[in-house]
Write a structure and sequence with these properties.
The longest helix is centred in the last third of the chain and has 20 residues. This protein has a five-stranded parallel beta sheet, with helices on both faces. It has a four-stranded parallel beta sheet with strand order 2-1-3-4. It is α/β, with parallel strands linked by helices. It folds into two domains: about 140 residues, 3-Layer(aba) Sandwich (Rossmann fold), CATH 3.40.50; about 150 residues, Aspartate/ornithine carbamoyltransferase (Rossmann fold, 3-Layer(aba) Sandwich), CATH 3.40.50. α2 crosses α11 and α5 packs across α11.
Length: about 300
């Protein structure tokens, strides 16, 4: 079996282009598996995986859980809101308690940037970052790039615009890093208040005009406005945001070429994207969800190959 160059999946920054291509090649095989009548393989029958979610999540948690069960792993689910964390227990204590139950791998979402790295330095289980604050969300970036590859044949040379709340998005940073490693050009687009200062230092183009960005791109990835992370008002109202940066069918149909529309979910229909766009043939949102399971199966399978058996 080919090997990843990393022991954990903390962020896209740590992966080589060869790592990403290996994950895609493995996901191709698992995509065949999940479309068969019997959707399980016995690959990880002796591996125990703990899903630790210190932040609310439905889609990502379900996607990881399904991926783990498709690989026949034993799965332990842990939700911080109903745990001893709410009583003041530290992250390391929580995880050490779980590891004493002989867990091989930890999939973790945490509100603090760097939490997954902090953990991977202190425990001997494999760690997969399922999102750490506003920092990174590597499996989302991998499934997005995998979906572009599937739809357009390759990522290299494609123009991808990421639209919306770049400032509070962990998806945006991971996507930028992943797409650039695979040879795509990236632009970010949104209100000035939601574009981080100095983001151009990452080698991305910046636009504050949605039509200009859409005419430039092959793929538009429409991000959700993360109101739960915003401690001040970054724009006057959702209605005004939608008028300036929301994608509707009228704009989509008036472009000079057909573009691919993506969204990492959950969708705020009528804000960043209208229902007729989300449900149109140009949208690949449901393919992203399906590909998420295959990509997470691939990541877990490849990292499990590095678990030292006692």
């Amino acid at each position: 079996m080919d090997n990843l160059s990393v022991e954990h999946l903390i962020g896209i920054r740590d992966l080589t282009k060869a790592d990403i291509e290996l994950i895609f090649k493995t996901a191709d095989q698992f995509k065949d598996v999940i479309n068969r009548p019997i959707k399980k393989v016995p690959s990880l029958r002796d591996v125990t995986i703990a899903n630790l979610f210190f932040e609310n999540s439905t889609r990502t948690r379900l996607s990881f859980e399904l991926a783990e069960k498709r690989l026949s792993a034993d799965v332990v689910n842990f939700s911080a809101s109903s745990s001893s964390v709410s009583k003041g227990e530290t992250l390391v204590d929580t995880v050490n308690n779980i590891l004493s139950m002989k867990v091989d791998m930890v999939v973790m979402r945490h509100p603090n940037p760097g939490a997954a790295k902090f953990l991977s330095d202190r425990i001997d289980a494999k760690v997969v970052n399922a999102g750490d604050g506003t920092h990174e969300h590597p499996t989302q970036a991998l499934l997005d790039a995998f979906t572009i590859r599937e739809k357009l044949g390759t990522v290299e040379g494609k123009k991808v615009v990421i639209v919306g709340d770049i400032l509070h998005s962990r998806v945006a940073l991971s996507n930028i890093l992943c797409l650039q490693k695979l040879g795509a050009e990236v632009m970010v687009c949104g209100p000035t208040t939601l574009i981080p200062n100095h983001i151009d230092k990452l080698g991305v183009k910046v636009s504050h005009n949605l039509r200009h960005a859409l005419e430039w791109c092959d793929v538009a990835n429409m991000l959700r406005i993360q109101l739960e992370r915003q401690d001040i008002k970054y724009f006057p109202s959702l209605r005004e945001y939608s008028m300036l940066f929301g994608l509707n069918k009228e704009i989509l149909d008036s472009l000079s070429k057909e573009i691919v529309v993506m969204h990492p979910g959950p969708i705020n229909r009528g804000v960043e994207i209208t229902s007729d766009v989300a449900d149109s043939k140009q949208a690949v949102i449901l393919q992203q969800v399906e590909n998420g399971v295959a990509i997470r199966m691939a990541v877990i399978y490849l990292l499990a190959g590095k678990i030292e058996r006692q």
